[in-house]
Amino acid sequence: MIRYVLTRGALLLAGLLVSSIIIFAVLRVFPGDVAQILAGEQATPQQIAALRESLGLHQPLLTQYTSWMSGVFVGDLGKSMLTGVPVAQEIATKAQITVPLGLMALTIALLIALPFGIVSAMLRGKRTGTAISVGAQFLAAVPVIWAGMMLVVVFAVWLGLLPAQGFPRSGWAQPGLALRALILPALTIGIVEGAMLLRFVRSATLQAASQDFVRTAAAKGLTRRRALITHGIPAVGLSIITVLGLQVAGIVVGSVVIEQLFSLPGIGRMLVTDVGNRDLVKVQSELLVLTGFVLVIGFLVDLVHHAIDPRQREAT
Questions:
Q1: Which member of 111, 132, 195, 246 lies 3.0 to 4.6 Å from 139 by CB, making a disulfide possible if both were Cys?
Q2: Domain span at residue 63?
């Protein structure tokens, strides 16, 4: 087990290193002079040159990259080119919105996918099972931004039950208002991601129902449904855990769009704003943090698989 963890940990670090190189390189090939953009159209060449030097943009790219990464390894993500505020501090502040939003969306997705996916599989060929399957197909195809706008129209405009945009200035000092502000964004992501996960749960449950051990349990006296619930569904767990890791990545990507739509001052909205402002240090650190989060989720999924599945332990 220790050897497996060390191997996967090394792959995680290698993935982060490769991701950092790609992020750094892609941001540097964007058109336009960052110093010119930050200085403004009226700036003189001398002012632009001075700004470029103060920001370290005059240094070779390799020097800029090693300087950035040497700080990352000690927890220093750099400072914003525009405000001078430490990037780690701003990410920590914005995460107080993005992380609860992601957890709420994931909870909603699971509450939709697990029960309805299993019921849809157990009632395959019946009206209820077909209706659930068709509904999941429709919702999975809905663009997340369109789903968000429809929820705003229904719950904020027509019914007036929830706020359409914004987050309390006092933040979580007013937990009731903060939670209400996150309900519609979380529902938007959770419904779409839950529909995608539902389709997989249904497929995995149907596959489990066709396994020999389920048929054997039925042959020993259990009903088909009881055999599936008792022996088939637990076997689906590992597959669901794998897909759930991918769903987390989908939720992270969805939060970028949803935070813009609902005017939530989270990491996603900050990232979009910083890209527009060409704040390279912030953008590259934000992208690295998001990438690292997705890679860590994959790492944890691998560890859970290894701990639960005896076949993987035997293989290693």
A1: 195
A2: 2-72
